[in-house]
């Protein structure tokens, strides 16, 4: 297969995934606990299209249905898309950089830093007077970013960062912060409830504000990762080799870690700690299409988005009107599939 | 700091500053209104310090708080309730109302679909409250951590539902029962008030601190809460501390079903030294919701606690 064919096949694959994502978004907007019919949802969505919408007649439904479809469901679905894509993309980068199959977006302490930030914000009501609903996401985001930043600096000798040290520093810092979080939690009494729900992760009660907060980070992260994806391939051959080929390895690490951290920390800030997506999706996609980051990155992001959106739809309706934390669904559905993949196509 | 990643650091600082700004901009947008009278439209300040305006007397009410559901039923608003949570189990008729999801994760789309003109919630649900407000629903958040607050919140709910007179009656009746207990225990000296340990959960051993509802009930019933010196609501209490404080009365009312009995508590290792066990003063409140749910039934909880602490006055 020549290079031209390969690029074509990648483009086709990404195109198909974009299409599937579009269908998933529409499909998942049509399901939920409230009795809004399939056709009604489609009509409500169509009517919102820029100029085409003017030709679609309004049906005989109560005003509240439009609120449900737009402000509740669609916002949530879009948020799941962004979080899923952000976590999967971040996972691809960290697995590539750290060359460790256990790597995921949380391995450098983002999750424990964010959890501590969120817990402190919730239990001590920090900034809620000024920041309102943004207090918890902001504290979580800062917690995650500051933690990764410290882990990076702790593992730095001169201008060099050794990846194994980075990995271990991340794990140590994560354990340290988790224990602080647990301590703060037991002091929190009744409010512990809120913290537990936040840590389990999910999209319950989230809306367009959260989408607006998250979007800039995910887009920035994606653009950066996309442009450096090829260089990440070179690192796969070994850092020394990459250096010989003219790649400024240390600089690449900084840029990629920065991008991955921003998108993962922002995702965690709005949705809590949703496990599994950032670890398994990149592995599964790599098993299916190979390790070239130029296609692995966009494909993983898209599959991550599709997967998390479907999982959240299931979380909303499986035990309606109760909600199941989405992390349970991601692990429950993704785990067996991943085991199947591993059995069928062992890692080399 | 190494020269090489200064740009990255700068970029991070800029991004962080921008996010601060964005957040500050979004946070401003509260409308202030004057507090109105008892008639509708009515504006009240709720427990999240929000000014909530209720345009007309509510005809469709959703309650996301079990205590709120009990209060609504007690005010005779049964017919107007169009939604409750999975945890709203009292009175029995509440269980038959449409469910809007759990207490921690109510489904906002079900609530919107129920087209309520008033939603009762509690501050812990603030994420959902904001989302419901965004869709134009009137949401009143309330909570109560002592007996007086419960009475005040029943009055508040009476006002926002247009059931002021019924609420006054309900509160009067409750106040009489509270006063009846107070009359009997008010003459006691500090020494005559026994030290009480109230067990909410056996493992980890959990009790209510100074900020818990339980604390106010124990105090009103003429007892001294041994965890009353801890400025928190729920407290995991060390067994060692319990033995050291040596409570004269142990009351247990477990959250959910622990299948524990007074005999189990007596049989706990090391506890045989405790005065309450020696003198067989262990009380059980079968329905925990009498003592943890800030609704009309708290007076029943109070009377039961008082009867356990001071059997000489109350049997």
Describe this protein's structure.
The complex is a heterodimer of chains A (348) and B (315). Chain A is mostly helical and 348 residues long. Chain A has one domain: Orthogonal Bundle (ABC transporter involved in vitamin B12 uptake, BtuC), CATH 1.10.3470.10. Chain A has helices at 3-30, 38-47, 63-98, 110-124, 128-131, 135-154, 163-186, 192-200, 208-235, 239-244, 249-271, 277-289, 293-317, 326-344, and strands spanning 156-157, 160-161. In chain A, strands 1-2 form a two-stranded antiparallel ribbon. In chain A, helix 3 (63-98) packs antiparallel against helix 11 (249-271). The radius of gyration of chain A is 21 Å and the shape is globular. The two termini of chain A are 22 Å apart. The mean pLDDT of chain A is 88. Chain B is an alpha/beta fold and 315 residues long. Chain B folds into two domains: 42-170, Rossmann fold (3-Layer(aba) Sandwich), CATH 3.40.50.1980; 188-314, 3-Layer(aba) Sandwich (Rossmann fold). Helices cover 42% and strands 13% of the residues of chain B. Chain B has helices spanning 6-27, 66-74, 92-95, 108-113, 126-134, 147-161, 164-185, 213-220, 239-245, 262-266, 275-278, 289-292, 298-309, 311-314, and strands at 42-45, 51-54, 61-63, 81-83, 118-121, 139-141, 195-199, 206-208, 224-225, 234-236, 249-252, 282-284. In chain B, the strands form four sheets. Chain B has a four-stranded parallel β-sheet with strand order 4-3-5-6, with helices on both faces. In chain B, strands 9-7-11-12 form a four-stranded parallel β-sheet. Chain B has a two-stranded antiparallel sheet with strand order 1-2. In chain B, strand 1 (42-45) and strand 2 form a beta hairpin. In chain B, helix 6 (147-161) runs antiparallel to helix 7 and helix 7 packs parallel to helix 13 (298-309). The radius of gyration of chain B is 24 Å and the shape is globular. Mean pLDDT of chain B is 87; it is low at 24-37. Chains A and B meet through helix 3, helix 6, helix 8, helix 9 and helix 11 of A and helix 1, helix 4, helix 5 and strand 10 of B.
């Amino acid at each position: 297969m020549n290079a031209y064919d390969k690029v074509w096949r990648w483009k086709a694959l990404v195109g198909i995934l974009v299409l599937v994502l579009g269908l998933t978004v529409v499909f998942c907007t049509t399901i939920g606990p409230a009795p809004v019919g399939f056709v009604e949802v489609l009509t409500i969505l169509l009517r919102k299209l820029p100029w085409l919408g003017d030709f679609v007649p309004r049906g005989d439904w109560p005003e509240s249905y439009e609120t449900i479809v737009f402000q509740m469901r669609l916002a949530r679905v879009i948020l799941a898309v962004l979080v899923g894509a952000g976590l999967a993309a971040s996972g691809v980068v960290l697995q590539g950089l750290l060359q460790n199959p256990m790597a995921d977006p949380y391995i450098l302490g983002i999750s424990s830093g964010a959890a501590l930030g969120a817990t402190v914000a919730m239990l001590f009501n920090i900034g809620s007077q000024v920041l309102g609903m943004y207090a918890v996401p902001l504290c979580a985001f800062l917690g995650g970013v500051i933690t990764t930043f410290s882990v990076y600096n702790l593992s730095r000798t001169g201008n060099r960062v050794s990846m194994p040290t980075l990995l271990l520093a991340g794990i140590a810092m994560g354990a340290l912060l988790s224990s602080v979080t647990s301590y703060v939690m037991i002091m929190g009494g009744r409010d512990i409830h809120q913290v537990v729900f936040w840590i389990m992760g999910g999209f319950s009660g989230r809306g367009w504000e959260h989408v607006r907060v998250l979007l800039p980070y995910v887009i920035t992260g994606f653009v950066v990762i996309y442009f450096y994806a090829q260089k990440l391939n070179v690192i796969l051959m070994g850092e020394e080799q990459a250096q010989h080929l003219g790649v400024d390895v240390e600089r690449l690490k900084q840029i990629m870690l920065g991008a991955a951290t921003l998108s993962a920390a922002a995702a965690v800030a709005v949705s809590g700690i949703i496990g599994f997506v950032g670890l398994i999706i990149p592995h599964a996609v790599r098993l299916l299409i190979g390790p070239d980051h130029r296609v692995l990155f966009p494909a993983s992001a898209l599959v991550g988005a599709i997967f998390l959106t479907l999982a959240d739809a299931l979380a909303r309706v499986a035990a309606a009107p109760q909600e199941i934390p989405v992390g349970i669904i991601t692990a429950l559905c993704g785990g067996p599939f991943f085991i199947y993949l591993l059995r069928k196509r062992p890692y080399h | 700091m190494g020269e090489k990643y200064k740009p990255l650091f700068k970029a991070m600082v800029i991004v962080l500053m921008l996010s601060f700004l964005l957040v500050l901009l979004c946070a401003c947008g509260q409308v202030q209104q004057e507090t109105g009278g008892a008639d509708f439209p009515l504006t009240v300040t709720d427990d999240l310090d929000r000014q909530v305006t209720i345009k007309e007397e509510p005809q469709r009410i959703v309650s996301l708080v079990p205590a709120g559901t009990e209060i609504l039923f007690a005010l005779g608003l049964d017919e107007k309730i169009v939604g409750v949570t999975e945890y709203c189990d009292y009175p029995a008729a509440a269980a038959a109302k449409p469910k809007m999801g759990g207490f921690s994760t109510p489904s906002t789309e079900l609530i919107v679909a129920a087209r309520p003109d008033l939603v009762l919630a509690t501050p812990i649900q603030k994420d959902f409250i904001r989302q419901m407000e965004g869709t134009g629903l009137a949401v009143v958040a309330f909570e109560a951590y002592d007996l007086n607050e419960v009475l005040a919140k029943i009055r508040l709910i009476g006002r926002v539902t247009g059931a002021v007179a019924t609420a006054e009656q309900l509160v009067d009746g409750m106040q009489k029962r509270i006063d009846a207990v107070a009359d009997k225990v008010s003459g006691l000296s500090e020494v005559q008030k026994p030290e009480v340990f109230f067990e909410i959960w056996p493992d980890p051993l959990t009790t209510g601190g100074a900020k818990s509802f339980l604390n106010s009930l124990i105090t009103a019933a003429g007892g001294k809460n041994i965890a009353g010196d801890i400025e928190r609501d729920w407290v995991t209490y060390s067994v060692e501390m319990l033995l050291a404080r040596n409570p004269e009365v142990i009351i247990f009312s477990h959250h959910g079903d622990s299948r524990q009995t007074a005999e189990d508590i007596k049989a706990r290792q090391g506890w045989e030294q405790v005065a309450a066990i020696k003198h067989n003063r262990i009380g059980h409140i079968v329905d925990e919701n009498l003592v943890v749910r800030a609704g009309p039934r708290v007076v029943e909880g109070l009377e039961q606690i008082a009867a356990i602490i001071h059997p000489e006055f109350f049997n």
